[in-house]
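quick one, 439 residues, struct below
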Amino acid sequence: MSSVVSRFAPSPTGLLHSGNYRTAVFSYLFAKHEGGKFIVRIEDTDQARSKPEYETPIFEVLKWLNIQADEQYRQSEHRPRHRELLERLVTNKTAYISKETPKTPDERGEVIRFKNPGGTVTFTDVIRGEITTDVTDLGDFIIARSLDEPVFHFAVVVDDADENVTHVIRGGDHISNTARQMLIQRALGLPTPLYAHLPLILDSNHKKLSKRTDAKALTEYRDMGILPEAMLNYISFLGWNPGDNREYLSHDELIKEFDISRVQKGSAIFDEVKLFSVNQHWMRELSDNDYITRGNLDTKALLAVSLLKERAKTFKEAREMLSGELSCLFNEPVLDRKQLLAKEPPERPGMAITALESLLEPINSLKNGVSSDMIKETIMPFANAEEQKGKGGRGAVLWPLRYALSGRERSPDPFTIISIIGSEESISRIRKAIAILEG
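---
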């Protein structure tokens, strides 16, 4: 294993969205590409806001995405170490206990501040190049609320050093934190990792993706029926590409191809339409049996997998179609006389029943298992003949046929339905439609 160590350090203070998990994905892919180690550290020092119901989904989603940590830590377990180093800074007068005037009832009357030496701090960002910050304006910033309550800037510096993190890959909104953290590293004599600040992810309105702007948690997409390989594929391309025209890469291919130098500096757009398109690609890659299993669908849906692959972009959509427009493939429809006559022209009364009766013989002659194209070639001559006779045309033939077979305004075309349910069942349904029209 190489010396590369990256980490994902989420705070369990809310459900995480794709922007949060993009950090995990890039950190993981980078470490695995380099043959290194990937760490997950739960940053739960904010005891008031950190909750188990937010932590559990983090591990569920990482497992779902097939992102496996080599080591796991919990920041709150490091409190003795944090206190030790805080005391060191106070003792050597690099930090001090500051008496404060609380502005709100929740504020402390005493905090620990870092003694800012001023000047500039420069680092070379792996993605953005050299960045220099004048730290004078930061003043003596807070690093702990008490010796047992370090704030983010302090705790993250200590933990990264103790866990031998070599590369900190995180969102671009953390650039402003880096100078503070480097000052703390210098004061403690700790190494400075390489920083790579990722481009922001924007929503469709070009605003920063966040919970406050209704960004969906990844658990919502999982529950919609997005495949994990699709989500991993899509997130990996938010601000990165393999340098060619490929759009679809598997878990192992992403590890092989991931090159952090190809991460772009500009913002990426989270496009749900594109995500669904990527998901449909991976759904279509599944075998029919795997489609049923992965979608948690009834085995009878095997009849309709080809249609589902053509139409459904998520497994939630697939389930909705099976209970809606595709239900006719499994259940005999309930027919309405008015709907059967919906396309019959007033000047040609009786056309619907005549059309259905004329199709009985050609449909009966079909063998089960014939393709929808062959069925279309058998039926269309009758519809075309009506087209020549005048008003109503093909629609006046094909509509009552499709409705007789499906009982729905929206359904597959009649040729597809016949190819799936067979000629015998099709004849039975057509005869019942004729009986309704005769009644």
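The longest helix spans residues 372-389.
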